[in-house]
Structure formats: C-alpha cells, structure tokens
Amino acid sequence: MNNSRRDFLNRTALIAAGLALKPSGLGAKSLANATPSPNEKGLLFDKSEIPRMLETIKHPRFAPYWKSITEADLDADTKFLRDELRLNNHVADFLRARTILERSSFVYLLTKDARQLAVAKLAISRILEYPKWDYFLEAGEFTFGLQRAPETTIAMAFALEWLDEALTVDLKNEIEKQIGEKGAPACYRTLWGMKHPDRVRGWGFDPASDYPFRVDLSRWPLILNSTNLKVIPIAGLGIAGCLLYGKNPQAQRWVELALQSARAFAPMFGSDGCYDEGVSYWGYTALHLAMFLEVLNRKLGIDERSLINFPGTVRYGLQMSMPTTGKVGDCVNFGDASVIGDVSVAAWVARTKRDGIAQYLATAVGEVRNHYGIIWYDATVPPSTPGPELYDVRFANDWVVSRTGWDEQSSVMALRSGFPANHEHADRNSVIFKAYGERLFHDPFKAAYPYTLKHWVLRTTAAHTAVLIGGKGHQYHDGHEGTNASWAEAKIIDYNTDGKRLVVTSDATDAYRLVNPAVELVQRTVIFLKPDILLLFDRVKLKSPSNVQLRFQIYNEDGKGSGQVRQSGFVIQRPHASLDTRLRSKSDVVVRLGQFDVPADIGVYPYLEAETQQGNDHEIVTASVARSGATAASTVEVSSKDGVWLATGKQNGKGFKVSIRPGGEKPLVQFD
After folding, report:
1. Among 128, 152, 295, 394, fewest CB within 10 Å belongs to which?
2. 373: Cβ–Cβ under 8 A, 6 or more apart, which residues?
3. In 135-236, beta strands by DSSP E
C-alpha cells in the first residue's frame, strides 16, 4: 500500500469515527455556557433587516429570481397541494410541498400578500399530514432522514418565524411538536448512525414509500458519512435544536450532536476549501453548513463561522466555474456535477468575512436559485474582480484547473487526478478543455444514478476523455450501493506554471492496476500553451502486450457537436469553435468515431477513439489546436528524434518548440 492510499484510509477512518482532525474544543460545556438570544432575534436575520432585503430584490442579480417566485402559479400550487399530493411520495411530492412552503413564506414575509400566505398555510397543513418526513427506516421501524426530513425541518422552522403573527398559537405549537417528533429525531438517528455505524440496526427503504429504485443501504452509515448527505441532517438537527432550545428537553443534545458532526465533517473540505463531490454539490453543502453556523451564532452565541476555510471554498466555486456559450452556469463537471448552481453561500461569506471575491461570485457567477442570497447580500461589500493570481490552481485534492480568464471566450483546461469521492465517475486523468465559448474535450452530463439504467455507462472511463487499456478503464464500482466512491486514485507528481504555460503530470497506475495486474505505469502529462494549444502525453507500460485506446468525448447536448476523422487525427466541431487534433505514437494509430448506446431521451453522445497496436510500452502524443473564425490559427506538429518527442509550431505569430523526454518517474518537459 502506498503512502497516499494509507493517508487516505487513515483520514477516512478518523472521519468515520466522528473524530475531528483539528479539534475546536466545543461540546456540552460550551452549550451549558451558551447564552440564548432574546426571542426577537431571528434565526437568520432580524425584522429590522427587511428594508435591506426589499432593496436587494431590486438588484439586477436578484430581481429575476424574485420575479420568478412572486409570479409563481399559486393556483397550480393550490391544486397540487389539495388534490394531487401523495402522502407516500417523498421524492417528488414532499419535496414540492416543502419548496412551495419555502417560497411562499418568504414572499409573504416581504410583501404580506394574502394569497402567498394562504398557499404557505396550505403547504404547512399538508406537510403535517405526512406520517413520516422521510422514506428511510432503521430496523424497519424508525425513520432516519437524509434530505427530506432535514430540509423540511429547516423550511418549517423558518416558516414558523417568517409567518409569525399570521399563524395561530395552536398551529405554531403543532409545527414545533412535529419538528420535535418527525424532523429532529430523524436527523438525529442519521447522524448517530454515522457516528456509530457498527451499532446501526440496518438501514433500508420504507416499504410504504412508492420510490421505485432500491439499492443496498447496509453500508450507507459509513459511505454517507463523508458526503453532502451528512451536512443536510447536520443543518436540520442543529437548526431544530436552536429553534427549540429551552422548549424541548432534547434540544441541547440535538445541538451537541450537530456540532460534533459538523466538526467531524469539516475535513471533507480541503484546507484550501476544495470539495471532492464536485462543484454542483459544493454550493448545496457549504450553504447548509453556513446556515447551521449562522443560526448557532445568532441564537446561542457560539461562533463557529470559521469551521472551514469559507473564503477558500468560494474561490473553489469560482475556479470550478466555466462560462460557456449557450450553457448557463457551466462548470468543470467532474463526477455528477452539471452546473455551478446556486452560489448563495458566497453572499454569506462576503457579508461575514467582508470578502470582495466572494461578493464577485455572489453577484456575477453561477445562479440565484433560492432566497438565501437575498437574505445575506450586503451592498456595502464591494466586489473584487479576480485576477491572474487565480487563473491556475492545483487544489488540495489534486484537481487542476487552468484558465485565461472568467468570461465566455476564455480558455479553461481541467485535469481530474486525486482520490475517490461520492458522486464520482471513473475519470482519473480525464481532461476537459473549453475555448472560444465552446466545450471541446468534454465530460458528459446526465449519467444515471441507478445502475440498472443504460446511461450508467456515462459514469465509466470509456465515457471520459481518458485512457482505456484493452478496452477497459480503471477500477469502478458496480453501483449496487449507489453513487459512492470507488477505490481508484491518481496523484499529481509534477505541476508547474508561469501563467502562460502549464505542465502537469498525473499518475493513475494504481487505479488501472486494480483492474489489470499487468499494468506497470499509466501517466498523463498535460501541457497547456495558453490560450489555444493543448498537448497530452500518455505513457502506458504493461507486463504483457495490449493495445491502448484514447477516448475523446464530444459535447453534443444541443445536437450541434460533431467529430470527423482525419489522417492521423480528427477534428471536433462546435458552432463557434473547432479543435484540430493530431496523434503520434510509437506504433500506428487508428482513429474511429463512435456513439454510446443510451436512450434517445437522454441524448446523443458521440466520441472519438484513437487505438494503438499491441505492445508493452506505449507513448502517445495528442496535439490539439483550438480555432475560432475570429482568431489567427496557431499550428503544431509532432515528431520524434532519439526517443524524444518534439512539438513545434507557431502561436501568436511566434515559433515555439516543446520537447518531451520520457523516462524516470515523470517525463521531462522543456521549452525552447
């Protein structure tokens, strides 16, 4: 076992045991000394802040979202809640009821619109009718909550405050009662099970639920302990505990466990703020952590708002963004990520840390999908436009992103190295490349979550811009336990950048050896000559001969992506840009165009494949030039001499030469 693998397993074991790597000294003692706030102090804000929020909804960033929620179809909401909602459907109906409640109660807070109040009260009444607030059971009897129970607990807690005088005393008491019986205990059981997985008496689906897909949940107390599905019950339990502190005899122990669990989860964010599950899950996870910490500080006077590197984590969100023509909120979509999504947590970071970069993210990147950005936006924090110092990053989890800027026309290259994680794909050493507003080397969207569906194939190495050996990718699980982490790891062994050029080498040998014991070496070196030239050097060494395939995925979500095979290469064509690619290898290379066999309603997923002849030692150079009709074309040619690969050409009217010398632990790359 190598050192990185050992470190990873040790780290995971500590987290599974509920131990913080950096103790913060909090626990029952600090709660015993907590000073609960006066009743007039709100969970997230004071009533005196409502005028500020009324100004925020006029801001160009927040006005479209505000318009969308004030113009929601309340008649359709009413019909759904009265006539269509199913009390055994949590995945869709319970979620929709909770969403309606959040939206309508917040709009009523700011507008006092009687129709919004009526819908909010109807949503509350239907939620209270649900016999259980989630669709998972322990020991076939006790509800535990992963998303539905904690999210609904949060929504009901906030609605209780935002609707306030409009609710009767009896209804308020019933809401608090059900939070204390259906919400918080379900969250507590989840977190207790994650803290003590050996004591869980079997997690499974509620047989009364109509959810059609079933997977094996027996290891979920351990698996989910390092995923976003731990933070959501942390927030639900912690907010419930703060809301009912001094009212419910269990509230203090709820807050205690939420605090312990938050500290145990904090190392899932890297020291620099990176997040392994991908950027689509980052905002959701960081938001719920921030909500709990904000409520904890406001209601109990315990300030843990620096539990993770919040300024760093908003920079992670920024650096994982990838503005692309025609795709709102596009991102470096490693794993199940699809868009950068809601960035409300950035408004909270800007407000609490007076952070201009966070304010830039909150107002210029990603999307506004909920009301928390309106609640937290502070116009007195000036945004700071990020500069070249953030263009190139090797995150603490060994993901690499390099760019030329932040607008649609900027180039972005991303390399997926690093450890396994929940929501991952089999994508080690996979590359994404975008230029002139277009995705040119792509990582497909819409991979299936259930392993029984045909588009599960989009999770495999074959569906990434990556390497296959004898037609097989690196190790990945079969999906019978869900979208949890595999055993596959890669590591960055070289990383250098001068702002204009980047060289990075990732070693994924261990990941491929888990599938093929004959594997001796699998390395990919990426050379990015900004803005339009990308060189890949793949080295594969085997104990027994095999052919090697390189896959290159084509972005075709809009039906406008295509690939054409050329002599010794190919062209990927998009409406606003193309990628001209040449391949050179120690053996002949055959290039072909393929397409994945997935249902038509999922999409059409074409790819290009370059295959070498059988051999033990493979060296393949892929030289790509991005072109746009509005730019002068760069050029690149590849040759070899005395075992050294040479890439020569012109860029910006100037000649260049790159030499790649294989051998040793990593190739030696030099520029002339």
Report:
1. 128
2. 61, 62, 65, 342, 343, 344, 346, 347, 362
3. 136-138, 142-144, 203-205
Q: Phi and psi dihedrals of 521, rounded to 5?
A: -160, 135
Q: For 504-535, what is each residue's pLDDT tens digit?
A: 999 999 999 999 999 999 999 999 999 999 99
Collect contacts of 217-223 with beta carbons under 8 A, ≥24 apart. 217/136, 217/481, 219/481, 220/481, 220/482, 221/193, 221/194, 221/197, 222/16, 222/194, 222/197, 223/422, 223/481, 223/482, 223/484, 223/485
**How far is residue 53 from each of residues 65, 291, 376, measured CA to CA in Å?**
13, 17, 8
Query: Domain for residue 300, yes or no?
Result: no
**Helix, coil or strand: residue 618:** strand
Residue 210 lies in a domain: no
Question: Looking at the 3D structure of the chain, how many domains does it have?
Answer: 1
Rounded distance between C-alpha atoms, residue 492 and residue 604, angstroms: 33
Angle of helix 148-163 versus helix 114-129 axis, rounded to 10 = 140
**In the block, which residue shows the tokens 């210029």?**
364
pLDDT digit string (tens) for 465-485?
A: 999 999 999 999 999 999 999
- CATH code of residue 562: 2.70.98.70
Residues spanned by the domain of 567: 399-671
Neighbours of 71 (CB within 10 A): 8
Query: Strand 606-612 vs strand 392-394: parallel, antiparallel, or unpaired?
Result: unpaired
The structure's pTM equals 0.93
Residue 565's CB is within 10 A of a number of other CB atoms, namely 15
Q: DSSP states of 337-371 as a string?
A: -----B-HHHHHHHHHHT-HHHHHHHHHSSB--SS
